[in-house]
Amino acid sequence: MTILSATELKKVYGSGENEVHALAGVDLAVKKGEFVAIVGTSGSGKSTLLHMLGGLDRPTGGSVTVDGKDIFTLKDEALTIFRRRKIGFVFQSYNLVPVLNVYENIVLPVQLDGGSIDKEYVDNIIETLGLESKLDNLPNNLSGGQQQRVAIARALASKPAIILADEPTGNLDSRTSQDVLGLLKITSEKYHQTMVMITHNEEIAQLADRIIRIEDGQIVNGEKETADN
Hints:
Layout: E1 2-13, E2 20-31, E3 35-39, H1 46-53, E4 61-66, E5 69-70, H2 76-86, E6 87-91, H3 102-112, H4 119-128, H5 144-157, E7 162-166, H6 174-190, E8 194-199, H7 202-205, E9 210-215, E10 218-219, E11 224-225
Parallel strand pairs: 3-8, 3-9, 6-7, 7-8
Antiparallel strand pairs: 1-2, 1-4, 4-5, 9-10, 9-11
Helix pairs in contact: 3-5, 4-5, 5-6
């Protein structure tokens, strides 16, 4: 079952001589429960693509369907609510709220949506990510790896259909990167999450079920199924 798809997705910045085609007609389909890595060099369009897939920016043309909904038919407020309920984000810069402790950061998306916290589920995530002893800490008292674990827990807390990870290990050393990526893979399997991760790191991409390459705003040949599929 396809849970995330893009059709003829285009994004143009500027106009005239300054026109830049960040995405030039991308077609993409991700199955439910799949862990996909999108790889490409700096400027290839991979971050733009992730932002479009997550509804953080609107395309110049084309469509994105998330869990059966064409998201760009929604007005801004409705799109914000849909995104909060259906998509979890993990960013390179963590994006934690500095005045909130670890637990408050984790449950923030659920509270913003006015939902009730599934304590057993959240506690299970916290245990899986090894954060039990850090719940009262503020983000600035945590290492980079610990902050990224909190960001992963926050992304999972609202039980989204899809997790989108934007260079989630970009600020981490190689050993911590492997730990965090291992946890991402474990949590995606444990909670049956669909995950799309962008990275420029080929070694990290090998952890995914499937690798998709993007160059100059287009998906190129070289899409690769791992031995697991």
